[in-house]
Amino acid sequence: MYTLAFMLALNASTNLATxxxxxxxxxxxxxxxxxxxLRESEIAERLAQTEAKRxxxxxxxxxxxxxxAQLKINDNKPSVIAQELTGYELLGIVxxxxxxxxxxxxxEQVIRLQDGIAGPMQLTANIENxxxxxxRYGRFRDLPIVQGW
Length: 149
Fold this sequence. Notes:
Layout (H helix, E strand, L loop, with lengths): L3 H24 L6 H43 L3 H6 L2 E9 L2 E8 L2 E6 L9 E4 L3 E6 L2 E6 L5
């Protein structure tokens, strides 16, 4: 024989299970069982992984945009060498035999360079068609040759 407390507990658990199944079927949700719980946890895990990847990609994009912006800022500033090359003035070109010398002025200083040969401070001058190209460490400046020289 069952005791009264056991009968009441059995009745309550049966009513609870019936109510859960009825409410689940009326809403369209399956009752919770281990397979459904496992699927839900797998879906939640995949969703979290997808969100993490999306955030990583957004971070990479933001870093790339920041790096590009830094490059643009640095490109706007002329280098020290480029600024120095703007100070040179072409005084003349002297040709003696096969040798051609270029005379330049930087402030009060007169500099004499041979065509195509690196001079002091790795400064090179090359005579082109209508200009003299000054070059130093990959930076250059073209000085026009005035007609009549």
